[in-house]
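User: I've been trying to design a sequence by hand for this structure and keep getting stuck. Would you show me what you'd pick, starting by listing the structure so we're on the same page?

Assistant: Good idea, let's start from the same input. This is the structure you sent:
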């Protein structure tokens, strides 16, 4: 019995719908891959920025000289007024770096897990070191480094969760047991 035109048309419509659905699914998968690639590229760019000479100099200043400089009334007043030389106030570069990172995370342009597994410790150390600077800057501009603070709060939450649920390391393969690192406290 020959097929009717209606049956042929219905089959053709189903095949067309299946092709369109498969194309849409493929497009969604490709978009996810592209988004992941873009996030990885942004993260790698930010990670490499951490080792650029200017930012390294700023990190060293914050770790070794900021606390003493904050005792200087002129240095502190420059922060309070918002009128400062960025070549003198190197701490601003470090805070702005973490602010940029926080903005990308808060807006979803950077994957939280990707950052939190890498940068939690460095972010919290920077936030701790820059709290007094942040307080001074917020006198004139209350929203200063809000995304840096967001990032520091996420980092603290992540660190607490990691302490409660530490990463389970696989056992060393036979013959590699000497690679084990024993806890310093256990060896005393």
């Amino acid at each position: 019995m020959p097929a009717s035109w209606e049956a042929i048309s219905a089959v053709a419509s189903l095949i067309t719908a299946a092709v369109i659905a498969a194309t849409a699914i493929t497009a969604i998968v490709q978009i996810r891959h592209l988004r992941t690639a873009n996030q990885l590229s942004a993260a790698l760019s930010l990670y490499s920025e951490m080792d650029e000479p200017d930012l390294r100099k700023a990190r060293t200043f914050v770790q070794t000289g900021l606390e003493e400089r904050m005792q200087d009334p002129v240095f502190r007043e420059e922060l309070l007024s918002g009128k400062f030389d960025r070549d003198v106030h190197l701490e601003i570069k470090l805070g702005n770096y973490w602010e940029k990172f926080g903005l990308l995370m808060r807006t979803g342009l950077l994957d939280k897990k990707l950052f939190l597994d890498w940068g939690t410790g460095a972010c919290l150390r920077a936030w701790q070191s820059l709290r007094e600077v942040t307080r001074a800057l917020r006198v004139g501009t209350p929203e200063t480094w809000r995304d840096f603070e967001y990032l520091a709060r996420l980092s603290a939450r992540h660190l607490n969760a990691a302490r409660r649920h530490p990463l389970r390391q696989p056992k060393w393969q036979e013959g590699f047991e000497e690679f084990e690192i024993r806890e310093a406290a256990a060896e005393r």
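That's my pick for every position. To get oriented when you compare it with your attempt: The radius of gyration is 26 Å. The chain is about 75% helix and 0% strand.
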